[in-house]
Design a protein that fits this description.
- There is one protein chain.
- By secondary structure, this protein is an alpha+beta fold.
- It has a domain of 91 residues: Anticodon-binding domain (Rossmann fold), CATH 3.40.50.800.
- Helices cover 42% and strands 18% of the residues.
- The chain contains 16 helices and 16 strands.
- Strand 12, helix 13 and strand 13 form a beta-alpha-beta unit.
- Helix 6 packs antiparallel against helix 7.
- The radius of gyration is 27 Å and the shape is elongated.
Length: 434
């Protein structure tokens, strides 16, 4: 038997986990700053709940039967479980509801860099509001989170599902043909304009319509200028005009929320593959990650209503923790710690072990992450090497002379400096500089 993990599923060793925990805690803090509340749901759902909700991606669902023969599925994302929760606990949830959730999901797709079969997402959604301010708050949360994580040069691309539909319709396509346009445009960043043209032609779109579609979806520039350009071409399509007005309202709200215009733009080529999106769609990109977007989301006003039996407008996003981790590791962003400890308490010798244990426990009770040497018989030099290997900032030495004077030697493992401190000062000094 080969000892290895399943392809597309990864083990995360301590150094990686420290960065991943930093990412999650940063996004959680910002989400709670925006008033979002936590939710946790099972990783297994009844398969029928997921089926018919994901379009072409439904083939990626992991399905299996339980002992009673009931068809179950591993969670594909956090969105469908949210819809079930809202329907199941309708009497206990006051709308609009801001919720966040974090956990693993599973997709049976071909693994690639930044794309895994087991992956972790942090979702944030506003359930029960159709206001463009809700859309703007979600985009603002995204922008604040990426900025807090230290991402340089990121931009959030904004679009609206009815803009792509409008582009298809004014180019001479009927409503039934619009689906092929969504699918083709969704591949734009992977296959380019020529590839999209071939996709459209293969799906039955005539060359003149394909050319018109490509011209409009490649409109670029400042957000307001792009909308003005599109408005001139789509004036005859009522739904597209409503979509443009909606995007204008979202952008105005982003300005009022203090989000820099350099952090977003309108991109008509953005489609987002999931079929349940109904309005705003968005993705954050950076030139430092050419493999695709950092994360994305959008408005889906019909999905939750399928479960609840009534319309419940919703907008949300999903932070892919695996992808954020990979990009941050590549760009050397975030903390680079080898461990969780701030202090490492050495043991000078067997006679001093009790005093060293008491010191370690006093530091822990003061809220300082502390490692205690487990090998009092080895030399201080080897203990100091272990402290450095574990990523501790400080090593504490407590020999017979220090004990007699009521002092501790504090060694800074970064600078190499060390000095004696009275026990009463020790905690204050570590807290002030750690």
């Amino acid at each position: 038997m080969s000892i290895q993990n399943i392809k597309g599923m990864r083990d995360h060793l301590p150094r990686a986990m420290l960065l991943r925990q930093y990412i999650v805690s940063t996004i959680q803090q910002i989400s709670e700053r925006y008033g979002f509340e936590p939710l946790q749901s099972p990783v297994v759902e009844y398969a029928e709940l997921l089926e018919g909700k994901l379009g072409d991606d439904e083939k990626l669902i992991y399905r299996f039967a339980d002992q009673g023969g009931r068809q179950l599925a591993l969670r594909y994302d956090q969105t469908v479980p949210l819809a079930r929760v809202v329907a199941q606990y309708a009497g206990q949830l006051a709308l609009p509801w801001r919720r966040y959730a974090y956990g693993p999901s599973y997709r049976g797709e071909r693994p690639a860099r930044g794309r895994y079969r087991e992956f972790y997402q942090f979702d944030a959604d506003i359930v029960g509001s159709a206001s463009p301010l809700a859309d703007a708050e979600i985009v603002a949360l995204l922008s604040d989170s990426l900025a807090a994580l230290g991402f340089p040069d990121f931009v959030t691309l904004l679009n609206h599902r009815q803009l792509i539909g409008g582009i298809a319709r004014v180019s001479g396509l009927d409503e039934a043909a619009a689906g092929s346009v969504y699918r083709a445009i969704d591949k734009f960043d992977k296959i380019g304009a020529d590839g999209v043209r071939e996709e459209l032609l293969r799906s039955g779109v005539v060359p003149t319509a394909a050319a018109a579609i490509l011209t409009l979806v490649q409109t670029e520039g400042e957000a307001g200028a792009v909308l003005n350009e599109l408005a001139g071409h789509l004036a005859s399509d009522e739904r597209a005009c409503a979509a443009i007005a909606n995007l204008r309202a979202i952008i105005a709200a982003l300005e009022n929320l203090g989000i820099s215009p350099a952090r977003y733009t309108v991109a008509p080529r953005l489609a987002r593959g999931l079929s349940y999106y109904t309005g705003l769609v968005f993705e954050a990109i950076t030139p430092h990650w050419p493999e695709g977007s950092l994360l994305g989301g959008g408005r889906y006003d019909e999905l939750i209503g399928q479960f609840a039996g009534r319309p419940i407008p919703t907008v949300g996003l999903a932070f892919g923790i695996d992808r954020l981790h990979d990009v941050m590791e590549q760009l050397n962003l975030g903390p680079r710690s080898n461990g969780t400890a701030v202090a490492f308490v050495t043991i000078f010798g067997p006679e001093q072990s009790a005093a060293s244990m008491a010191l370690a426990q006093a530091l822990r009770k003061a809220g300082i992450n502390t490692l205690l040497s487990l090998e009092p018989q080895i030399s201080l030099g080897k203990q100091l090497k272990e402290a450095d290997r574990r990523g501790a900032r400080y090593a504490l030495l407590l020999g017979p002379d220090e004990l007699a004077r009521g002092e501790v030697v504090l060694k800074d493992l970064r600078s190499g400096e060390q000095h004696s401190l009275e026990r009463a000062q020790l905690i204050e000094v570590i807290r002030a500089s750690a």
